[in-house]
């Protein structure tokens, strides 16, 4: 007995394997059908109804024996499409019901022109068609089903059946109309909220632009004017001091131009951020020169061609070097700063900004506290990484690895301030 069951299981497993590898089973429509549990349920119902319709069909209708399985199939199997394609299943059921009622004679005083299983199938498919078909098809389904059932049932029951189907059609149509209106209302509400949010963003951008213009741009303009007129306003200005004032004026003028470009981006609705100043590797020399004018000793090793790095990556590298140099001049005055931008592994670009220990008191310049976290976020946004840690000799090192071609499929994680190795944020840089 046990061996028989084992053989039976083996035959069943081999049959399932053959069925799953058959060409029909690989068809996308077939795979989609069998991927739904509801389709499996209605397929089971169809098989049960078919097992009832075939043996009982000779009792209600007169026809040759070889025709019985075909007629029983039309009376039961279309319900298998009740979930995946209810309109198609309904069409098959309603046409077959009308043809069977006209062509096939009944026997034994059977009052219906179709079987009970066929009637049940037709009612279920009609209800599912009401639920899932386009709204414009509901009158067609209602009228066609009413006509077929009116001819299929006894004359005394026609009014009741037609009335019941009509009520069902009206109720389902009203419910679907109500649900559609609710969905439209939800969409309009979402669109309104999005428009209000966009308007709020535009207002905030305009406010920021005004503040930048009234405060930053004005102050930078005053710096430019005061630096340019210093040699005329102040007595006994040496040539070296005059040159220093000119350098300050040039740096302030460049910063003012960048601020004005940013203001243009903020003020214009729909302006692309690419309209803002986007310095890259080619501007690193100018950045280092400006830092040297401030009294810092900076050594630049740019061992990579600017054309080998994408615009986004070049901008990130520039901003990292810029922020690192600013931190070095504030927190480690008098120290040496080494800047290296070289080829790394694969398409990576290695960036290192390392300064020695300070030889003078750190400059007491206020900071926002977002310098290092901002650099980390910039690096991660293009698929790179950045660490900022103190060196054993008392200096500080910023090292980053940036893809030359930023990967756009990178999800930027919530970054934490890079630790000094012990899990605590570094407090030496801001």
Describe the structure.
The protein is α+β, with helices and mostly antiparallel strands. It has 2 domains: 2-186, no CATH class; 282-360 and 367-430, 2-Layer Sandwich (Heat Shock Protein 90). The chain contains 12 helices and 5 strands. It has helices at 2-21, 28-34, 37-60, 68-76, 86-103, 116-132, 138-152, 158-233, 239-267, 284-293, 311-331, 371-381, and strands spanning 297-302, 336-343, 348-355, 385-390, 396-403. Strands 1-2-3-5-4 form a 5-stranded mixed β-sheet, with helices on one face. A hairpin with a 4-residue loop joins strand 2 and strand 3. Helix 8 runs antiparallel to helix 9 (239-267). It is elongated, with a radius of gyration of 40 Å. Residues 408-430 have low confidence and may be disordered.
Topology of helices and strands:
Elements lengths: L1 H20 L6 H7 L2 H24 L7 H9 L9 H18 L12 H17 L5 H15 L5 H76 L5 H29 L16 H10 L3 E6 L8 H21 L4 E8 L4 E8 L15 H11 L3 E6 L5 E8 L27
Parallel strand pairs: 1-2
Antiparallel strand pairs: 2-3, 3-5, 4-5
Helix pairs in contact: 3-4, 4-6, 5-6, 5-7, 6-7, 7-8, 8-9, 10-11, 11-12
Pick out its properties.
430 residues; alpha+beta; Heat Shock Protein 90; five-stranded mixed sheet; 12 helices; 5 strands; disordered C terminus
Inertia-based shape: elongated
Q: Please, how many domains?
A: 2
Average pLDDT taken over every residue: 81
- Helical coverage, percent range: 55-70%
End-to-end gap: 81 Å
Biggest pleated-sheet summary: 5 strands, mixed
Strand fraction equals 5-15%
Numbering strands along the chain, what is their spatial order in the largest sheet? Answer: 1-2-3-5-4
Low-pLDDT sequence parts: 408-430
- Given helix and strand content, the structural type is alpha+beta
Rg of Cα set: 40 Å
Q: What is the number of helices?
A: 12
Q: Total number of β-strand segments? A: 5
What pattern of helices and strands is seen along the backbone? HHHHHHHHHHEHEEHEE
């Amino acid at each position: 007995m046990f061996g028989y069951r084992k053989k039976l299981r083996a035959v069943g497993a081999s049959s399932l394997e053959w069925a799953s590898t058959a060409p029909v089973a690989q068809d996308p429509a077939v795979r989609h059908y069998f991927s739904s549990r509801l389709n499996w349920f209605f397929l089971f119902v169809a098989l049960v109804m078919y097992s009832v319709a075939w043996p009982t069909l000779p009792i209600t209708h007169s026809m040759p024996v070889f025709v019985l399985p075909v007629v029983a199939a039309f009376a039961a199997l279309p319900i298998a499409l009740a979930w995946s394609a209810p309109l198609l299943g309904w069409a098959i059921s309603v046409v077959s019901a009308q043809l069977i009622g006209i062509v096939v004679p009944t026997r034994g005083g059977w009052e219906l022109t179709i079987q009970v299983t066929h009637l049940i199938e037709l009612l279920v498919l009609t209800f599912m068609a009401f639920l899932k078909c386009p709204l414009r098809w509901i009158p067609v389904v209602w009228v066609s089903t009413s006509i077929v059932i009116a001819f299929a049932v006894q004359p005394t029951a026609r009014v009741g059946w037609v009335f019941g189907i009509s009520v069902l059609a009206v109720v389902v149509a009203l419910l679907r109309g109500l649900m559609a209106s609710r969905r439209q209302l939800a969409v309009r509400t979402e669109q309104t909220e999005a428009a209000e949010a966009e308007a709020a963003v535009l207002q905030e951008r305009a406010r920021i632009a005004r503040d930048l213009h009234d405060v930053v741009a004005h102050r930078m303009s005053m710096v430019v004017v005061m630096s340019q007129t210093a040699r005329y306003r102040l007595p006994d200005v040496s040539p070296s001091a005059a040159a220093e004032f000119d350098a300050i004026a040039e740096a302030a003028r460049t910063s003012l131009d960048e601020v004005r470009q940013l203001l243009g981006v903020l003020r214009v609705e729909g302006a692309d951020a690419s309209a803002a100043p986007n310095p890259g590797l080619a501007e690193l020399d100018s950045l280092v020169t400006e830092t040297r004018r401030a009294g810092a000793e900076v050594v630049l090793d740019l061992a990579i061609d600017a054309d080998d790095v994408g615009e986004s990556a070049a901008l990130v590298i520039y901003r990292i070097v810029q922020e690192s140099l600013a931190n070095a001049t504030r927190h480690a005055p008098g120290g040496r700063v080494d800047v290296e931008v070289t080829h790394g592994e694969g398409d990576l670009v290695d960036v290192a900004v390392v300064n020695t220990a300070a030889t003078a008191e750190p400059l007491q310049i206020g900071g926002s506290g977002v310098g290092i976290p901002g650099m980390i976020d910039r690096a991660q946004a293009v698929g790179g990484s950045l660490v900022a840690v103190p060196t054993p000799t008392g200096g500080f090192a910023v090292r980053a690895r940036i893809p030359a071609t930023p990967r756009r499929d990178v999800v930027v994680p919530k970054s934490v301030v890079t630790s000094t190795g012990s899990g605590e944020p570094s407090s030496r840089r801001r």
